[in-house]
Amino acid sequence: MSVTRIIDFSQQQTAAEPCQPKPERLLSGSPKQTIQNHYASSCGQFNAGVWESGAGRWKVSYSEHEYCEILSGSALIYDGSGHVKVVHAGDRFVIPAGFSGIWEVLENCRKVYVMFEQN
């Protein structure tokens, strides 16, 4: 395999696709979001890219494992018991599959994501 097959996010011309939390998950705000999925494996289980969101609060339920690196902004992640994790630029963490809770973006938040979906 050639080095030309390496995916360099800074060299990709991937269009930012608009998205929003589903209405039934939205708790407050109207967060406009974009996703630039720079890589998708042929099996469909592995994806990597950049996500961005405006302020808002919504319910989440993860069927995939997700590595996150916050590039800018800040957010709160609440678990089902109300415990909170504050994340901001420079933070790196993994959200395991099976996590359910709430994401609350406080100020425009941009992150690199790497997701693995189990079968």
Automatic annotation (TrEMBL):
Membrane-crossing ranges are: none
From which domain of life does this come?
A: Bacteria
Alphabetical list of InterPro entries matching this protein: RmlC-like_jellyroll, RmlC_Cupin_sf, UGlyAH_Cupin_dom
List residues of the (S)-ureidoglycine aminohydrolase cupin domain. 41-113
Cite the PANTHER family for this sequence: (S)-UREIDOGLYCINE AMINOHYDROLASE CUPIN DOMAIN-CONTAINING PROTEIN, CYTOPLASMIC PROTEIN-RELATED
The name of this protein is Cupin domain-containing protein
